[in-house]
Design brief:
With about 180 residues, this protein is of the alpha+beta class. The protein is about 15% helix and about 35% strand. The protein contains three helices and eight strands, in the order βββββαββααβ. Strands 1-2-3 form a three-stranded antiparallel β-sheet, with no helix packed on it. The protein has a three-stranded mixed β-sheet with strand order 6-7-8. The protein has a two-stranded antiparallel ribbon with strand order 4-5. Helix 1 runs antiparallel to helix 3.
Length: about 180
């Protein structure tokens, strides 16, 4: 239920800065105490990200290793990687310019992705374009253990349609028929 507890107390070794302890709880009930608010453990996680092909007609899978700290959330790292774009030369990012990730969290096997208004406003539209953009995200988030569905939010609110064609008011599961 609680992901993180932060304790602030006077630092006995240095009167000018308070001691900052972060206690992080993980799904398997392990607690990690980190007094420096920094990741002291990193690992690489192999994920499959989906980007557009060169002519904008299909998704293409790009396998990538993401470097994760112990406090990093995989869904957020995946979203940042999608926004940053592909490493492959013949691939294109499908996330509209200016899109920001407001929040990403998982509850009851649903990954909620809250994006800024630019995600909707700056998209060029068209049925195929909308499908590819949405399923670029949904298919990529299927990498996360326990995620069965994705629910999109724009500025914290559910919207009925992405632009004109793709319904976003319900839970979406992966569609790999769009992958080349």
């Amino acid at each position: 239920i609680v992901d993180q507890i932060r304790f602030m107390a006077p630092n006995l070794n240095d009167d000018s800065a308070p001691l900052n302890l972060i206690i992080t709880s993980y799904a398997d009930d392990k607690l990690i105490i980190n007094q420096y608010s920094q990741d002291f453990y990193t690992d690489e996680v192999r994920v499959h990200l989906y980007f557009g092909n060169s002519d904008g007609t299909a998704l293409v899978r790009e396998t990538r290793n993401l470097t994760m700290g112990m406090t990093d959330a995989l869904p957020l790292a995946i979203m940042k990687a999608l926004i940053a774009g592909p490493e492959g030369e013949d691939l294109t990012s499908l996330i509209p310019q200016g899109t920001l990730v407001k929040d990403v969290f998982i509850k009851d096997n649903v990954c909620y992705v809250d994006l800024s208004a630019e995600f909707q406003k700056n998209h060029l539209g068209g049925e195929k374009g909308e499908l590819l953009t949405i399923y670029s995200i949904v298919n990529s988030l299927q990498n996360v253990s326990g995620v069965r569905y994705v629910q999109f939010l724009i500025e914290g609110e559910r919207v009925e349609y992405y632009k004109s064609y793709v319904k976003l008011d319900g839970f979406l599961s992966g569609d790999f028929s769009l992958v080349q």
